[in-house]
Every structure is written in structure tokens, then in C-alpha cells.
Amino acid sequence: MRIRRAHGLKRPKLRQSWNKYNLYNLSRVEPPVTAFRTFFQQKWTAKALSRAYHGETVREKHWQRMFRRRLRAVVSMDPDMLARSDGYEHGEGRGSGLEPHPDRKPHPFPKTPYMNMTFAPLERRLDTAVFRAMFASSTRQARQFVVHGDVKVNGKKMIYPGYQLNPGDMFQVEPERVMFATGAPKDAAERRAGRKARRKQESSAQSEESPSSSAPASEPSADTAVDSPDPNPRETLQSLLSQAHALLTSSSSSSLSGKRKQDLRAFQRLLKKTLARTHMFPQSSTTLTDSLDAQLQELTQKLNLNPAPSPQEQVDSRNLSPDTMTPENSKVLRRALEEARENPIDVTKPYATPWRPRPYMSAFAFIPRYLEVHHKICSAVYLRHPVARPGLGEVPTPFGVDVNSLAFNWYLRRR
């Protein structure tokens, strides 16, 4: 019911959110009615509409202290016009006998929307910048990320959502939180599979912690212990990584093409990332090891290389055909590479896997000009303060100049 109240359909108020109800309200937004209303009523209505979108989590008194009557703006001058008329349009061609063509219409100069910069001070807030960088689906969620310590500014943890960013500040969010915020939610089957996986991990952890009373009676013999050893998945991954390194450093690697070397290096990076994640999900490490082992074998077959095999590999290599790759084997290799990509299926994640964007996200997928965002490492740089340009206001707002002008006049009186 909280989402329903925040995104009402009867009396719609626009919010900084990717919610589908908010998108529907954006599609049917209309300028407020000004007929038969006093100037005070028009300003109050415009203030209520604009404040519901800009800084809904900021108290009114706090915003009144942040308000500035000085609006930042720049004017871009055309270098050709400067060289021709010295920056003065009325003096163009003066004294040279140059006259404009009678059929030539003057080019209209776009107006600068100064009033759209009314709420520019709110764009410096850390929670608003996290939302503008597409690291959260709403400013409320961005505020939660900041309070929970998932956001860093210039390498240091920042837990204050109202922190004012300065030009040049870099902020970054935990990648898992960004993937949860921007990823599609799980359906019923995926949630059920996640609950089963968590229960299985909890039961296995409890069974390992509680010692069994029948351990001395059911102790296996030395022969059986030697015959059936329990391999360590982390050691297996380390051996796979060393084998991939041996393939790249061998003398026969000079005959490899650039594409094959790129595949091997990508496989090495995948192994390193998998090694870093094995301590988080020990139950799924064995399946990852099996798929990576199959991938390495298929890569070796496709490259037609013969590195020095280990004893275990000598036993497994009897089942491998030394012939060249067949179309069926190439399909198997392609499928193995697709399964071992950086976007695996993991039911333990709080979002749907493989990762895909959440619905209704494309309508809000834009980055303001005053931010430089790197989505691969989930970090962004606050380049400068937003400004107004001819025909463009850099503060994203769903309202026109008229509404923002009335809101500006409302707060201008109270300063």
C-alpha cells in the first residue's frame, strides 16, 4: 500500500522513481489549471507539484535554506559568428556594403530556460546523484544505499544522503546493490528455487557444525579413504588456471591467432573471478569447476595443442578424440562458453539471473551532462554543477518553464 500512496492515480504526483505507476502518471501529466485562480494559488500549486518530484525526502525548511536565487547559465557563442560580426549581431557587415538577402529570414536564437534551474541545488545531493547515474531505481532506494554504507565518495564510505558533491568528486556503489536495483525481479519459480538453495546451504552448514555421535563406529578404512578422495574445488580451479597459463606461454602459442589468445585470456579472467567467489557459495563451486574443466578441454581441442597433462588429465584424455573439431563439438564449445560467461545463472542472488534490465526502465535510461558514469565498475564523477544553455536546462524535470517559474517566485518571496 505504500507504493500505491506514493504513486497515486487519482491525484497523481510525479516522483523520481522507475515505478510503472509513476511512468503512467508521466504519460498523462498536464499543466495545472490557472483560470480563475489568484497568483498566490498558482504559485502554491506549482510549488506542490514540483516539490513532490524534486527532493521529496528533503524537509521544506531544509530546502528553503538550500534555495538560491542565482541561477547558473552559460551562452555558447558560435565561432563563425564571432569572426564575422565580432559578437555583435546588429553590427554584422557594417561599413562593408554587405546587406542580407531580402528572402533570407533571420535565424531564431533559442531561449534559455533559466527557470528550469530552480531545483539545481538538489542535484548536488549524494542520493540524487546516485539515482541520476542509474545506480538505483528511485531516490528513496538511493537514500537507503547511502545509509546502509554501500556508497563511497572519493574512496571513503559516506552514510549521509544529503552530502553535497563538489566538482571532481567520484562516488561508487556496490555492484551487487546496483544489479539488484536495476535488475528484473524474480518470478515465483525463481524465488522458490532460491529458498530451496538457501535451506540446503543452511542444513549442510548445520550438519558440518554438529559432530555425529556415530563417527568412531562408522569410520571408513584406509583403503576406502584412499580410493575415494574428496577433491577441493578451489585447488581444481587453481590447476585449471595454471593450465591456461601454460597454454599461453608454451612455444606453440606463437602460431595462435589473436582471437584464440583473446579466448584464453578471457578464460583466465573468468577463472580468477570464480576463485574469488568460491568462498561465498561453496555449494555451487563444484558445478562451476566441472563447467570450467569442460571449457578448458574444448579450448585445447579447438586450438590443437598438446600441453603437458597431469595424471588425472591423462586418464580423462582417453575419452577425447584427437581429431579436429566437428560441428557438433564446436556447438558444445560455444554452449560451454555461453554458460561460463560473466552473467551466470545463480538462484542464490536476490534478482533474476541471468541478469536482465527491469521492466519499464528504458523510459528513464538517460544520464545528465554533468555526470560521467562508468557502468562496468558502478562509479561516476560529478563533473560540474548543472547549468542552463540556450534551449536546454541540464536539470532533468518533467515540468515546463511556467510551472518552475511559479515555484521559483514562491521561494523567492520567502528569502
Keywords summarizing the entry:
mainly alpha; 415 residues; 5-stranded antiparallel beta sheet; 16 helices; 7 strands; two-stranded antiparallel ribbon
Concise overview:
This protein has 415 residues and is mainly alpha-helical. It has helices spanning 2-6, 20-27, 39-53, 60-66, 79-85, 126-132, 139-147, 175-182, 188-209, 222-227, 233-249, 258-277, 285-303, 311-316, 327-339, 401-413; strands at 151-153, 156-157, 169-173, 371-374, 379-382, 388-389, 392-393.
Q: Topology, pairings included?
A:
Elements: H1 2-6, H2 20-27, H3 39-53, H4 60-66, H5 79-85, H6 126-132, H7 139-147, E1 151-153, E2 156-157, E3 169-173, H8 175-182, H9 188-209, H10 222-227, H11 233-249, H12 258-277, H13 285-303, H14 311-316, H15 327-339, E4 371-374, E5 379-382, E6 388-389, E7 392-393, H16 401-413
Antiparallel strand pairs: 1-2, 1-3, 3-5, 4-5, 6-7
What can you tell me about this protein's structure?
By secondary structure, the chain is mostly helical. The protein is built from 16 helices and 7 strands. It has helices at residues 2-6, 20-27, 39-53, 60-66, 79-85, 126-132, 139-147, 175-182, 188-209, 222-227, 233-249, 258-277, 285-303, 311-316, 327-339, 401-413, and strands at 151-153, 156-157, 169-173, 371-374, 379-382, 388-389, 392-393. The strands form 2 sheets. It has a 5-stranded antiparallel beta sheet with strand order 2-1-3-5-4. Strands 6-7 form a two-stranded antiparallel sheet. Helix 12 packs antiparallel against helix 13 and helix 13 runs antiparallel to helix 15.
